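User: Some background: our group keeps a shared notebook of sequences we're curious about, and every so often someone picks one and asks for a predicted structure to add to the entry. Today it's my turn. The entry only has the sequence so far, pasted here. Could you supply the structure so I can complete it?
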Amino acid sequence: MVSTAPKARPSYNCSKCPGYCCSYPIIPLNKRDLARLARYFGLSERAAKLKYTVPREDEEMTMRRKADEHFGRICQFFDTKKRNCTIYEARPLACRGYPEVPRCGYYEFLKFERKLQEDKELVAHSR
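Assistant: Of course. Here's the predicted structure to add to the notebook entry:
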């Protein structure tokens, strides 16, 4: 039976987030993600894999990371000044589907802290 209920709309605003999901230690990539990145940068898949991925734990391909003042390490394609993705059109499936639920826990936490501390620019981080 096909559900006719409307899908729950997300209740978060990524434009006001400092990129929490981009700081996850493992952002897995599949073969389609690799092909998308290769096309985006005009590289062969082999070159893209060498340049942009690294194996971690049980994952053959994960996004490389770089230093970040808020979270320590973050996705290599995250603009740490503007706090947004620089490859949004070519982002991997894991990023396309995030957060998979109608509410983002970090966004809810951030809204709460900003209200509590009366600071609309607060960026809560782990340091």
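Suggested note for the entry: Strands lie at 53-56, 59-63, 65-68, 72-75, 78-79, 84-85. The longest helix spans residues 105-116.
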